[in-house]
Amino acid sequence: MVTGATGRTGSLLFLALQSAGIEARAFVRNITKAREVLGCKACDESEGIYVGDITDPETLGNALRGVRRLVILTSSYPLQLPNGTYYFPPGEYPKDIDWIGSNNQVRTALMAGSVEHILLVSSMGTTQPDTFLDKLGDGHALFYKLNGEIDLMASGIPSYTIIKPGGLLSTEGGRSLLLAGHNDRLMHARVTRADVASVLLAAILNPKHSRNLRFDLSSDPDQPAGSLLSLFEDARDWSGSWNNNVQL
User: Fold this and answer.
1) Is 123 a catalytic residue?
2) Global pTM exceeds 0.85
3) Hey, what's the signal peptide range on this chain (predicted)?
């Protein structure tokens, strides 16, 4: 199941899972947006579309029943006022979405009893407090995303994969060498949403390679795309691909 499935990365992954012949569910808040973004017709459970809210655990239980893998792609998002300042709508602060909402998903997945693997897309920068991203809207988004990462790793789930992408681009994927790193050493590099979706799909299809990994994800546009399995090997090796390919 993919939560945040109508988002720009979530929709790419959900459609890729369907194209790969994998039975997938989309957890969404808005049927109208699901129809527009995911191309569903009935947009109900018969098409794998489940409606709910991650801040309300009761709406997650039915959707997770029988699911083997959960991909968490929900994220808080700051809005900008005319004066240039940022804010979060009530109930959608990073604390609500990136920590409590993420934890709701993890705990409900554990209670479902069938979930073997949880994949979480967090963000670059969670180990660097009080950056400008943390201060947007006074939300401390990266702090709460870090708490979400910790909760997942400590949950007891048999397998987890945590991906921390750099700045997200909406350009075409599959063209650049993807880089794995640690401790936010790739902080200023970027990666396409399509490549993030491809890494998630590869992690789902190759669970032995992606098991219990937490890594930064970025790309080098000056080098051609490489093997995604090699990316997981780099992620497990803390010397990582960033050591050889990126000027820090």
Assistant:
1) yes
2) yes
3) 1-24
